Amino acid sequence: MKNRIKSTGSYMAFVLAALLISCSNTETPVQGSHEIAVNLYKVESKEMVQPVYASGLLFSETEAVLSFKIGGIIQEMLVEEGDAVKKGQLLAKLDLTEINAQVIQAQNGVEKAERDLARVKSLYADGAATLENVQDLTTALNVAKEGLRIAAFNQKFAEIRAVSNGSIVKKMRNQGELVSPGMPVFFMNDTGNDQWKLKVGIADKDWIRLKEGDKATVSFDAYPETEFEGLVLRLAEGADPTNGSYQVEIQVDPKGKKFAVGLFAETKITPSQPKSYKVIPVEALVEGFGKSGFVFTMDGKDKVKKIPIEVAFMLDNKIAIKSGLENTNDVIAAGSGYLTEYSTVKVIDAGGKVSAGL
Asked: What domains are there in the chain, each with its CATH number?
C-alpha cells in the first residue's frame, strides 16, 4: 500500500535524494585520464502547472439526522444500520393510540362548535342573542378547526420517512422506547453519484492557486488500483482556526464503487492556470537538498561552472526551476554526478562523438 503524502516539501526532498543516489551510480564514459565526457541539455521554457497534493476524509453532501415531529412510543423500526433506503421509504412509526385519540377529540370539538354557532345564529335572528354572541362562537369554531388541523398534521408526522436515496449510517433508538419531539432516531446520508465529497486542508500558498472547477484525481487505500475523477467544488474563504489550513471540498465520482463516510483518500489537484518555468532533466541536478540544489554549465571550451538553483516542483522526469537559470541556456545532464568546479570535460552527443560547434 502506498505511503500517504504528508507534504509537497518532504516529498520533494525524498525524491531528489533518491535521484541523486541513482545518478551517482550511473556509468559515464571518460575521455583520457583527466577529461570527463558529458552531455548538454538545452534549458527549455514551458507552460506547466504545479499539482497540489492533499489528503482527507470522504463525506456525503446530504447528511440528515431524522426524528419524529412529536413525542410518543416507537411502535416499529423498519430498517437497520447499513440498510440502503429509497426516498420516501417508511423507516419508523410511533404508536398512534394517543395521537388518534387527539384527532378524534379535535373533530368532536369542531362539531360542537358548529352546533353552538348554528343555535346562536337562530337565536340572533329571533332577537334572543346578541351580535357579540355570534362573533364569539364564530371565533370558537375557527379555533376548533385549527386544533383539528394541528392534530391531523401531527398524526401524519408520527412516522419517519427517508428524505432521499441513501443509507442508514446510525440507528440511535429502538422499538418500544419513549422519544420526545426532535430526539434523533436515525442518521442517514445520500449516496447519489453527485453527493460524495472529499474535504482536505491545504496551505495558503496552494489555496491561492486553485479555483472552483479545477480537476483532481483521487485515490483510496480501499481501492489501490483505481483512480477516481474529482472536481473542486468549494474553497473556504478563511483558514480553519484549529490548524490554520484552508478547507477545499472536492466532488468525487464513485464510478459505481461502494463508498462510505469516513474513507481516507489522497488527491492530486491540478490548477487550471499554467505558469512558465525553466525546465531541465532531473539528472542535471546535483547536491539537492529540499528545494535547493546546483547544476553545472559550460564555462569556456572545457571548463564547467556551478550554478545554484531553487526548484519549484518535479513532474515525471523533469524539474521546473523557480530561480537560478535566468541567464543560462544549457546545463550538463549526463555526467554531472562526476563533476567538480575544477573538472575538465569534453561535450559529446548521444552517440559518444564530440559535439560540433561547442
From this structure: 9-49+275-347 (2.40.420.20), 53-61+194-270 (2.40.30.170), 66-94+158-188 (2.40.50.100), 97-150 (1.10.287)
